[in-house]
Amino acid sequence: MSRWDRFLDTFFNAKVMAKYLPDILSGAVLTIELALAVVVAGLLVGLILALVRSLGIKPINWLIIFVVDVFRSLPPLVVIVLVYFGLPSAGFSPSAFVSTWMSLALVLMAFAEEIFWAGITSTPKGQWEASRSTGLSFAQTLLYVILPQALRITIAPLTNRTIAITKGTALGTVVALHEILGMASSAVSNSYNPSPLMMGAAAYLVLFLPVVVAARWIETRFAWKR
Amino acid sequence: MPPIVSAKAIHKHFGTLHVLKGVDLDVAERELVFVIGPSGSGKSTLLRCLNRLEEPSSGSITVDGIDMLSPRTDINHARQRIGMVFQSFNLYPHMTALGNVTLALRKVAGKSRAEADSLGRAALERVGLADRAHHRPAELSGGQQQRVAIARSIALEPRVMLFDEPTSALDPELVGSVLAVMRGLRESGMTMIVVSHEMGFARAAADRVVFMDEGQIVEQGPPAQIFENPGHARTRAFIGQIQRH
Predict the structure, then answer these.
(1) Chain A residues contacting B, CB < 8 Å?
(2) Residue A127: closest CA among chain B residues belongs to which residue?
(3) Which of A198, A197, A208, A201 is nearest to A166 (CA)?
């Protein structure tokens, strides 16, 4: 066997790949479900927190800042382990899926809150004043005048952070979640061959490359002349 | 006839800074009052207290019979009657000129989109920008932006218009178009309170000039009197300074 053949046999073994393709695909489905759930929950709660923070109620804002800073400091892996292995002693035993979802959503929420907040505060004060002077309420001003401007500013940092955190779905392997990486590594142990890992990597590329490209498109689409 | 704007004993503190020290100002219907004074004299703060963009520390303000400082007053409703134009235009950059003008018509005055659009177009027409309805602020000159901002205010048919240095951010050649719109408003009988250094406009159009310094009204009177024959040394010094420029 030539060196090249041995390389192909090790990393791109057709028989192994065919055998474990269904596993990798089911892992991919789980990864997609998890990623979508993380993005929706994380961005939504992050936005809500930023809106609440804009009301300027001090004790509530301190609490938001504290929670957000904690989840921005903790490595997502640590959060997942804490939720999965720690919460059961508090009487709540989330599944591997729920643990990973909660953890990543909390981390994305924390970063998203900060990004939305930065967008809201970077909108000039004159925008508030012009809107309020025509009789729009605080909430109407936020909704029609401030948020549309804030969201455009936040799109680039937000998509970057969202992509980074959704890739963290791979961390679910530590709590035996059957997502792409989990499926691939158990296939590697069962087949004594690393080809499934290559399939896993390919699956991540297939899933996330279009998202990255779409993010780039959204960024240019929403840029507007000042 | 009672004044349409009546501010009594207005005090405003920013922390330890005492910006307004008991200002009284009554403005009659259809009157054009010019407020002048050195920077930091409190003239912009006074203007911003009238529609409660700044909260006065004490005093009373009545506009068109509404007690502006009463907790029972619906401030958003009251503000529809008080138009305000800012030095930096403050147009909404994500909306067209027409969108800027119609937002409050739809969301505050409760007009349908069609109604708001036709009122908005009429307002843009009045400031000479009917053909710019679908332009974004970034596609308009400073003078055009400020005229859209005026249209945004007059579309709500306010009883009083406040102008906070409306031409200070404009290139000299664009000032005239904004002043022309203000002159038109004046001729239509709009009550106006203008903070500005456009002395030529003040002379030609103002009924009364109010000179403020260090948080107080030093003196007031018809433009001819204030500009040619001021009673106070501080007024004289200020008028002298700006006329040398």
Answers:
(1) 124, 126-127, 129-137, 140, 144-145, 148-149, 152, 224-226
(2) B90
(3) A208
Q: Are B178 and B170 in contact (CB under 8 A)?
A: yes
CB–CB of B180/B191 below 8 Å?
Answer: no
Residue A169 in domain: yes
For residue A172, the Cα-to-chain-centroid distance in whole angstroms is 13
Q: Which domain holds residue A217?
A: 22-221
Q: Do B108 and A152 touch (CB under 8 A)?
A: no
In a domain, A5, yes or no: no
Q: Which residues contact A171 (CB under 8 A, 6 or more apart)?
A: A76, A77, A80, A100, A104
* All residues at 6 or more sequence positions from B100 whose CB lies less than 8 Å from its CB, including other chains: B91, B92, B137, B148, B149, B152
Q: What is the mean pLDDT of residues A94-107?
A: 94
Asked if the Cβ–Cβ distance from A136 to B103 is below 8 Å, we say yes
Q: What is the DSSP letter of B141?
A: -
Question: CA-CA distance, A165 to A170, in Å (whole number)?
Answer: 10
Residue A29: CATH number of its domain: 1.10.3720.10
Chain A positions touching B84 (Cβ under 8 A) are: 129-130, 133
Does the pLDDT of residue A226 top 80, yes or no? Answer: no
Secondary element (H or E) of residue A170: none
pLDDT at A225 over 70: no
Q: How far is B65 from A178, CA to CA, in rounded Å?
A: 70
Residue A11, in any domain of the structure: no
Rounded to two decimals, the ipTM of the complex is 0.93
Question: Consecutive 10-residue runs of chain B (245 residues): their mean pLDDT?
Answer: 92 94 95 93 95 94 94 93 96 96 95 96 95 95 96 96 94 91 93 92 92 94 92 90 72
Q: In total, how many domains does chain A have?
A: 1
- In this prediction the pTM is 0.85
> Can you name the residues that pair with B211 across neighbouring β-strands?
B36, B219
Is position A168 within any domain?
Answer: yes
Sheet bearing B191-195, strands edge to edge: B82-85, B160-164, B191-195, B32-36, B208-213, B216-221
Give CA–CA dist B226/B223, Å, rounded.
5
| Confidence check: pLDDT of A212 > 80 | yes
The pair of structure tokens assigned to B45 is 């703060």
Task: Verify whether the Cβ–Cβ distance B83 to A149 is below 8 Å.
Answer: no
- Mutate: best of A133, A143, A145, partner B, most B CBs <10 A: A133
| Chain B CA closest to residue A132 | B76
Give the chain B residue whose CA is nearest to the CA of A144. Answer: B103
